[in-house]
Inverse folding.
């Protein structure tokens, strides 16, 4: 396999990329010329050396001047330490941050748990989550853990597994577990809504 | 214009139908033969003679034995008269009925109100709604009016106009106005959610 | 089943229409009012009484003043009687007419022949086609039969079956059978073309 | 801009990639770990050092043992030197090769020529093409130049410009210019075909 084919194979493994688009990527790099290829190499190399996983919330971040193992969100002392939002992935955390409606802490599981997953603790950071909760419970600041999963079968399954795993840790502590509210989301049309969404929208209706 | 072209024109005005599909409908009727055409004619004629608009909720229904002007939902004495759900269209009412989570009464506005609509009371049944609410307030059973509009700009605008129009009627009565709950709907993924949905999901979170 | 449900069922059988859109059609007819329903009934009734199938090419047409059993295309004496184009459906004939590049006669099979079709002569007008060809061969004007099928597996299968069926009728007559040319069609991009299309485009290349 | 953002920007410039997918690519590289990043860096570096543009047909290829400036297709003495196919891009050449229906030589223009292009000779390899044709005409082997462009407005415009540019070079030589055949391509349905395709399919019909 020559390097054109090898690079095509590498791009094929990128999320959502088929053989044809992978081939186009290689061709793009070939025609864009020297500096584009050099730029890609240097930036991936920089990623290699400066991208870190936060030791507290486990999201990826980039090292700045101070050589810290903790990300800016976790270091930010103006954020409320009373709530911890558990999300499946970095992109979920970024979505919540963009909404500018939450100022507590985060924990990134790294994955959702599928129904066929026999050992969920291997695919998500279960041990790290229980360790973190245990520590925070002892410190006494934590008041609420928000399980912020997507509203699809895998998201709900993940929330259920997490709830079972962390409930015992909270027994004597005054920490509640909550989940995101349900009802109509932006763009939802009544005509096309399923029974579950209508039920939630009715139960959670507001005066 | 011959009758093939005329019928194609008629089908083109059906919701969501372009010239090509309209032409296919005509061809379907031509090839399906005599009984299919006869069946369509008879059923539309039956619709003409037996479909009625309920004098109470204004949805369409079909006359059964008893020659009533009121639909089965409105006549059903087991349904709670304490709540009235205002919807834009018949299909919205049908969606809510299918969810089997509401057992109160309905009122169908007939339309949503667009932002450019100078005289909304001409496109929606505003006079009929206020008349109905006035009557119900006098009878003293009504406790809640649920504005059940889709969560899009026109739906929200409609709810706002309706709320302004009916609030004065409820001043001395103990009747509250509510809207459907907001948050994640079935299938919502955090990664792709807008700030508004995340804000609602967070504000309405549940223990 | 009331007439709203009955009409929904009828529309569901229309080509390409699901339950939701069928329901919308009924609602459209209910809200459009009396004259729209009346118009539909009258036009379908007119279709019933005045749409005819041409006794020569078997396409559907509408009776005009002269009470003819033959359509305008078949009656048009300026069209060349030397070529007969065999198409699967009325819409194919209409497509060719719109292109204004053919001035011969037509024959509509009524269907394509699927691979699982054990008795193709029941689904397409095979007997009528052979009768017509026999008659035309005797008259001595016919020079070419064009099998104008779509370039998909069923279209090619149909052309093959038809060719086998009509070849024996032409043995002593000087009538050739032809098929539509192959190569790049409007919009074809080389990058996304399959081997067959490229092969045809190369074989049929033009100086 | 940190390196996560920088890499996202780089991927956004990849063909067909939006900001969201670019972000996913970066996340994929972060989670796939060290070896995936290393592998990408090494292969792009290899591309930098070993991908060459053929001095004869101008497609990209990878250097093998022999340090040649000419690609394997151009060096292959079993391929017919009597025909030269002019294509817009590498991917077009690859499409034709996959069809295994052509065994002549190629020339890659590098681009198509758009209608607004005032100086087409700057965007496509016009000088290189005329040089190559002049050389081949002198050698006396060339019999045919195939302009193999996609059948869209830009493809046709490109073919026309190229034809005008190379015709003078062929005046005394016995070399013809041809274009790809037109008609139905795989999957073409008569019902949905435009007039141009039907015209070509009829003109190029085959016995």
């Amino acid at each position: 396999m020559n390097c054109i084919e090898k690079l095509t194979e590498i791009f094929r493994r990128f999320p959502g990329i088929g053989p044809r688009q992978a081939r186009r990527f290689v061709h793009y790099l070939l025609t864009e010329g020297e500096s584009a290829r050099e730029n890609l190499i240097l930036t991936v190399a920089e990623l290699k050396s400066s991208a870190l996983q936060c030791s507290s919330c486990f999201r990826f971040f980039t090292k700045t001047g101070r050589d810290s193992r903790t990300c800016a969100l976790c270091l930010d002392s103006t954020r409320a330490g009373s709530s911890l939002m558990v999300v499946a992935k970095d992109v979920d955390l970024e979505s919540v941050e963009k909404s500018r409606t939450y100022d507590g802490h985060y924990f990134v599981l790294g994955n959702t748990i599928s129904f066929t997953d026999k050992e969920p603790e291997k695919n998500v950071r279960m041990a790290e989550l229980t360790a973190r909760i245990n520590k925070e419970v002892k410190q006494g600041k934590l008041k609420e853990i928000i399980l912020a999963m997507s509203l699809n079968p895998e998201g709900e399954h993940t929330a259920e597994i997490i709830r079972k795993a962390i409930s015992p840790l909270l027994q004597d502590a005054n920490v509640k577990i909550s989940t995101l509210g349900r009802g109509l989301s932006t763009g939802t049309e009544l005509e096309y809504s399923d029974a579950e969404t209508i039920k939630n929208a009715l139960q959670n209706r507001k005066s």
In short: Chain C touches chain B at residues 2-4, 6-7, 10, 13-16, 21, 23-31, 34, 36-41, 43-48, 50-51, 60-62, 64, 89-91, 110 (CB under 8 Å).
